[in-house]
Amino acid sequence: MTTKIEKSVFLRAAPEKVWAYLTQPEQLKLWFHEARAPLEDGQPYALKGGDGDDLCWGEVTSANPPTELIYTFTHNHLKGHKTRVHWTLEPVESGTLLRLVHDGFEDAPVPAFDMLCSHDGGWDEHLGRMRQLAKESVGA
């Protein structure tokens, strides 16, 4: 069984703008969750839920603006098991091709298929919001 999620989306925003969506607290909260601090190379991060508690967290293992961001990712449902989120940004005519690979579910202490289904749907929802955000920023 494949234990990774792969997504790609074309966004009407330059890679530098998409990078800000992925790393800056004010931008992250518009499509994903609010970060306590910018996501920076070698630094731990935490994203807050609506109640202000940490919803997910990890460490940025590689940040190469504006082309690649990699971080570990966990939350309570993963029971602390660290997965990996790998973003790549490629400039294309009129915007950015954003790719996501989320892997590392195979050794989780919870059913991998359940986690894949849950995260797959979550990423669809979050990336849809990012797409709308990028579309709206073009007219701004």
Describe this structure in words.
- This protein has three helices and seven strands.
- It has helices at 15-23, 25-31, 112-138; strands spanning 4-11, 34-35, 44-48, 54-64, 68-75, 83-92, 95-103.
- α1 packs across α2 (25-31).
- The protein has a domain at 4-19 and 60-138: Alpha-D-Glucose-1,6-Bisphosphate, Chain A, domain 4, CATH 3.30.530.20.
- A seven-stranded antiparallel β-sheet has the order 1-7-6-5-4-3-2.
- The chain is globular and about 40 Å long.
- The chain is an alpha+beta fold and 140 residues long.
- The model has no long low-confidence stretch (mean pLDDT 94).
- Helix content is 31%, strand content 38%.
Chain-wise SSE layout:
Blueprint: E1 4-11, H1 15-23, H2 25-31, E2 34-35, E3 44-48, E4 54-64, E5 68-75, E6 83-92, E7 95-103, H3 112-138
Antiparallel strand pairs: 1-7, 2-3, 3-4, 4-5, 5-6, 6-7
As for the CATH topology of the domain at 4-19 and 60-138, it is: Alpha-D-Glucose-1,6-Bisphosphate, Chain A, domain 4
Secondary-structure arrangement, i.e. CATH architecture of the domain at 4-19 and 60-138: 2-Layer Sandwich
The percentage of residues in β strands lies in 35-45%
Strand adjacency order, main sheet: 1-7-6-5-4-3-2
| Unreliably modeled segments | none
Radius of gyration: 15 Å
Structural class per helix/strand content? Answer: alpha+beta
